[in-house]
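Field reference: "sequence" (input) and "structure" (output). Example, fructose-bisphosphate aldolase:
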Amino acid sequence: MPKITRDQVRVPADVMPESRDEYIENFMKATRGTGRLMLFACDQKIEHLNKDFYGEGIDIADAEPQHLFEIGRQGVCGVLAGQRGLIAQYAADYPEINYLVKMNSKTNIVGGSQDDPYSPQLYDLDAVLAMREAGVNIVGIGYTIYLGSEYESTMMAEAGELIAQAHANGLLVVLWIYPRGKAVKAEKDPALIAGAAGVALCLGADFVKVNPPKPEDGSSPAEALKVATMASGRTGLVCAGGSTVDAETFLTQLYDQIHTGGAVGNATGRNIHQRSLDEAVRLTKAISAITLADYSVEDALDVFNGDEDFKL
């Protein structure tokens, strides 16, 4: 099981001396003392509206937003990521969860054929810091950049300023970076994914969430991902989970992303929350068994199937 000590946390130089201990504490919380990130992504209620939470193939429990927080409390996660308002409505009842506040969002109503994507910042960092001051267990913030959009410069500028402010206040930052827009011909091109990882590093993010690449040269997605993890340098790279697939397929992909591709964790939403509470909790434990404890796929499946429990 990978473990790190507080002394092993690499603190960026833009973290102010008075915030250094808080940054280290937040890093240890978010990574459960492993240096790896298990991010439970709960930001889709704006991004995808209600279609990710109600409909064919989705457990009815997911129609109620509290389902997300019950999974966060009963399962094994590093951080639960969602918009400020979502977290504000439920955090008092779920104080033990580590929260990451998503600072920007957009819906999917305006299609790419109408306009290039732009995800505007929804609130400033002071609103997040006020929540933290009020006692909400906020360990970091997140921001999405659509690389290749005609609005990328605005999103990069907003993200860069937020990262500087967040680090100065001891918070972690995770960037979601997706190549998308009329100028982008292949959103999952391995070179573009590696480019996105490098942009995250240059902006100063602690972690970057990207889509798994789709190579066309005969290599596997995990092999292609290795180039991106090299490009990300000291910014830890994790992959988006995508739409729901069976547990064995998902866990196998995750294992390969970490052990072949060099990823330092995962960022999973629909694959978790579209299931019943019991199944979702078991899947968070199976995912965390691979991400945080280096379990094999077979052993993680035992956790998912309820034949073995997993606790950190």
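The chain has one domain: 4-303.
The mean pLDDT is 96.
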